[in-house]
Specification:
By secondary structure, this protein is of the alpha+beta class. About 60% of the residues lie in helices and about 15% in strands. Strands 1, 2, 3, 4, 5, 6, 7 and 8 form an eight-stranded antiparallel beta sheet that branches. Strand 5 and strand 6 form a beta hairpin.
């Protein structure tokens, strides 16, 4: 039986690797052409961006490649009469599907780590590279550029450095333009801390004006005397960063790995802020891996109709092309609906693979041949 499993896995992996390379090539060519049309820059820059974009491409490619691998490997075994010989030797359809499912699950686990760690790391490097390119004109023209960027999320707080202060906050509500649990640490030209401001939240008013609530103000921190502490319910504040800067930081949350993202979602939930966009991103890291398993088994339904006339190469190619574009479109559409809270995040991420799972369940029950 081990030799039969080796044969199945060999054919499956050949088609899986081949389909991954072909689909990556298609997406890469589209990325390069789009960059050339937008006149992004030198070819070296375009290829560097392509390398950083590749992990995101793998998230799209792996599930479809699992389906292609199962479909074409079964088709090849059927055309060479090896599938009939496999079943005649006592190797059941159930064992065949378990073998394919285990392989698809292994690919899904690999995709989970790619989506949970490699994709955020690549996005972080992309953001750094883009910020470096954008800062070049600013450096030559001496124009003002915000230094605001997400540096770390520690103990549920985002930190960044301004011109003469450090700033930390737990979350930003884009609907009300409100910062929660913020703290500012001011320092002088000798880099000694001079004062500290802490507030439960800050509401944006206009221009660079904010209104702090429940403020604790520490002063004289750079002197040898004991610091002065004052408390007030409200206090106006001027900071250089704009609302768009904080919205950009929210966009940079996608550069967090899965566990830091989970911590940030917990902070948003505690503050009563809509976290659908980030929860969809969090669940997507799990659902993409699960989809690999489901699609690998989905194509194994061809085992119940091993007639070579029903498994022509042309029909398989047409099915794969149609299914690929339909899957990418529907899944992306569901994600966008989930991010805007139009449907629950669980439905947005697991809706498509769950539908296929229900179909497989009733399909196997109907045929009664899974033994």
């Amino acid at each position: 039986m081990s030799e039969i499993r080796k044969l199945i896995l060999k054919e499956w992996m050949r088609f899986f690797v081949g389909s991954v390379l072909v689909l990556l090539l298609v997406l890469s060519l589209g990325h390069i052409l789009n960059s050339l049309l937008r006149d992004v820059g030198e070819l070296k820059t375009i290829l560097f961006d392509l390398a950083l974009e590749t992990p995101s491409f793998l998230v799209k490619v792996f599930p479809v490649s699992c389906l292609i691998a199962s479909l074409f490997s079964i088709n090849k075994l059927t055309n060479r009469n090896e599938l009939t010989a496999i079943f005649a030797s006592g190797f059941s359809r159930k064992s065949f599907i378990i073998t394919i499912g285990a392989t698809g699950a292994s690919v899904g686990v690999l995709l989970f780590f790619i989506n949970a760690y490699l994709v955020p790391s690549a996005k972080h490097k992309q953001d750094m590279a883009n910020n470096a390119r954008q800062s070049l004109p600013a450096a030559t023209t001496h124009s003002k550029k915000s230094t605001l960027s997400i540096n770390t999320l520690n103990a549920g707080k985002i930190w960044f450095k301004g011109q003469d202060y450090f700033f930390s906050y737990s979350s930003f509500d884009r609907q009300t333009n409100t910062l929660y649990n913020l703290t500012l640490y001011y320092y002088n030209k000798n880099f000694k801390f001079t004062e500290q401001l802490s507030a439960s939240f800050a509401e944006y008013k206009d221009h660079d004006n904010w209104l702090l609530a429940n403020v604790v103000h520490y002063t004289n921190l750079d002197n040898k005397t004991f610091p002065t502490i004052s408390k007030t319910s409200e206090m106006p504040l001027k900071i250089r960063e704009t609302v768009s800067d904080f919205k950009q930081i929210n966009a940079n949350i996608s550069t967090l790995n899965i566990w830091k993202l989970n911590d940030y979602i917990g902070v948003l939930r505690a503050n009563g802020i809509n976290y659908s966009e980030y929860f969809v991103s969090f669940l997507d890291k799990f659902s993409s891996g699960f989809t690999c398993l489901v699609l690998a088994i989905l194509a194994s339904t061809a085992l119940f109709s091993p007639n070579r006339r029903n498994s022509s190469f042309g029909k398989n190619v047409a099915f794969v092309l149609g299914f690929t574009f339909m899957y990418w479109f529907i899944y992306s559409y569901f994600l966008s609906l989930g991010e805007t809270s139009q449907i629950p995040a669980v439905v947005a991420t697991f809706g498509v693979p769950f539908f296929f799972s229900i179909y497989l369940f009733f399909y196997f029950i109907y045929h009664r041949k899974l033994r």
